[in-house]
Specification:
This protein has one domain (19-86). A 4-stranded antiparallel β-sheet has the order 3-1-2-4. It is an alpha+beta fold. The chain is 18% helix and 33% strand. The relative contact order is 0.25.
Length: 88
């Protein structure tokens, strides 16, 4: 069977792993120094939701960047994990 003639996978799924990114998220509480966490997720919204469940009233969270794939691997971060990166 020719590659062009192959049917698409059922449900649009492929055998490839889902793409994850390590988002850098700053957590601020009033006048305290912001803490920056690396959160590995499918999207920035998912990363924010993961950290939002751990915050209390008066804390602000925002995405401030992302880690490279190489640095994410060196830190040993996996999907769904988070790690404190900086407190100043």
């Amino acid at each position: 069977m020719d590659k062009a003639a192959r049917p698409a996978p059922v449900g649009g799924q492929t055998n490839k792993k889902g793409k994850h990114t390590a988002y850098l998220i700053a957590v601020r509480h009033k006048r305290d120094v912001p803490r920056v966490y690396a959160v590995v997720a499918h999207s920035a919204e998912a990363a924010l939701a993961q950290l939002n469940g751990l915050t209390i009233d008066g804390m602000g969270i925002e995405v401030v960047g992302a880690l490279s794939r190489d640095l994410t691997r060196r830190l040993g971060l996996k999907a769904g994990e988070m790690q404190l990166i900086s407190t100043h």
